[in-house]
């Protein structure tokens, strides 16, 4: 019996946003920090 790996579909909007961030020169860690800071600010409001 052959096991078929699960295929995950990527969210196209997230892919687009990450591509834009990369084009602006942001690395993965900077994107992560930006999202973290946004989440923290949202909780304060």
From TrEMBL:
This is Sin domain-containing protein. The lineage of its organism: Bacteria, Bacillati, Bacillota, Bacilli, Bacillales. Residues 1-39 form the Sin domain. One of its GO terms (molecular function) is protein dimerization activity. GO terms for biological process: regulation of DNA-templated transcription. InterPro entries: SinR/SinI_dimer_dom (IPR010981), SinR/SinI_dimer_dom_sf (IPR036281).
């Amino acid at each position: 019996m052959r096991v078929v790996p699960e295929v995950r579909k990527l969210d196209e909007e997230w892919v687009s946003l990450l591509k834009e961030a990369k084009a602006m020169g942001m690395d993965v860690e900077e994107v992560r920090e930006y999202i973290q800071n946004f989440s923290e600010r949202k909780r304060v409001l």
